[in-house]
Design goal:
Elements lengths: L13 E5 L4 H6 L10 H7 L20 E5 L13 H18 L3 E5 L1 H8 L7 E2 L9 E5 L10 H14 L1 H6 L3
Parallel strand pairs: 1-2, 1-3, 3-5
Antiparallel strand pairs: 4-5
């Protein structure tokens, strides 16, 4: 099984953090490649991307100031296959990535991702009161998995809150 490469650079607007790669993502070498995953549709419908991207264009998100990584590197069929040890190791690696690349916002794609990273249990959607790593904003959004039972409109609405935190959103009103 292939390791899925991160798409990271310095001073990102948003770093999207998933649980771990799906088997399809590991097979193709692209993030959110499972055809049932709604990540790319969500980003577009929320106004985060100017057009609908596909998984094989995942590296192009860097041009928009968006990066991609996961808390655990091992691909699995489902997140419940991830071990406590993998989360513990992934938590420390993710902290180092955030400190090194200094994204403005870290968007955790799923409450469970943030629960594993922060060790907090009661989590709200959207901006979190305190960031785990100083210097960035923690934002929790629903998982984009097709298994999530939330309506697409509800998911998109939460991701739209993310657009309001982006620097360009604030600048538009001043022009």
């Amino acid at each position: 099984m292939n390791m899925l490469p991160d798409h990271l650079t310095y001073d990102l607007k948003v770093l999207f953090v998933g649980f771990n790669p799906s088997l399809k993502s590991a097979e193709t070498g692209h993030h959110y490649a499972n055809p049932n995953n709604r990540f790319w549709k969500i980003l577009f419908r929320a106004g985060l991307t100017p057009r609908l991207y596909s998984a094989n264009e995942d590296d192009q998100l860097l041009q928009l100031g968006f990066g991609l990584t996961n808390i655990v590197v091992r691909p699995t069929k489902a997140a419940d296959e991830i071990t406590k040890e993998e989360y513990q190791q992934g938590r420390e690696i993710l902290k180092r990535k955030i400190r090194q690349y200094r994204p403005q916002i870290v968007c955790y794609v799923g409450k469970g991702v943030y629960q594993q990273f922060s060790n907090k249990r009661n989590i709200i959607w959207g901006r979190q009161p305190d960031a785990v790593v100083d210097g960035s904003i923690d934002f929790v959004a629903p998982s984009s998995s097709g298994l999530v039972r939330m309506k697409m409109a509800e998911v998109v609405e939460i991701y739209q809150q993310l657009t309001l935190l982006l620097p360009h959103s604030k600048d538009k009103g001043e022009e």
